[in-house]
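Can anyone check this?
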Amino acid sequence: MRQQKLETIIWLARLGSFRAVAERLNITQAAISQRVASMERELGAKLFERSTRGLKLTPEGATVLSYAERIVDLSAEMQIQVTNPSAYVGTIRMGAVETLVHVWLHRLLERIHETYPGVTIELTVDTSVVLREAVANGKLDLAMLLSPGDVPGLIKREICSYSLAWAASPRLGLAGKRLTVGELAKLPIITFPKRSAPYNMIKDLFRGRNLPPVRLNASGSLSTTIRLAVNGMGVSMLPPITIERELKEGLLHVFETDFSPPELHYTSIYPATPLNPLAEIISDMARSIATGA
């Protein structure tokens, strides 16, 4: 029984529709249907049945799935242990948040290309929420993002952590000052996108304090956030590692507040099954580069 058929069963069980699996595997829905029909003939059992929510595994299908996952995972493990890196050929769809793009992603891409010259990277840069959904839906093989909490069906690997600091343009006159939360609330705040951990952190900071409405300007682009802060359009809570040049050149200054923000923790996530051997390898590479290990 060919591994392609086993992977098809795994993805159908996970995504629940021929269309989604066809997009994930880059083949036609007819080809997906043929693979399933072929397996059902070989095994003499029906593997899926349709429901209002899409395809559902039959009891026999659930048994086949458990074996398929073990076989595919063992195959991936064998590849990791035995295959010469130069023999890897294919494409891996990888996502990353912009903070990591600013800091070290270029070094990761360089190392991947040096180690695996036959591998092509399709890179998506987006918010953590969008990237997590893309991995869960099979649209990405791997994503590096802010720690997403519980991720059923996905493997989560720690990569690195970065501190946060309040920063502003010198024209706002905040260098060396320490602001109370009430004083901070009077300033325009340029922050990470809505639904992100830093955005929610700032919202929670002002909640229940009987303060006037706080001007939170959410931006989906770190580059834009930094540029707006440099231009004096507001203050921002940023990882200092992303604004090293601006701090060195005096375009931004760090100031203190009564609120000490916690560190941001970044992780990689990828499907637990079918395991892509490169996803695990690239996660290890990312951690090594980020931590200098």
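Reply from J.R.: I decoded it. The chain has three domains: 3-82, 87-162+265-291, 165-262.
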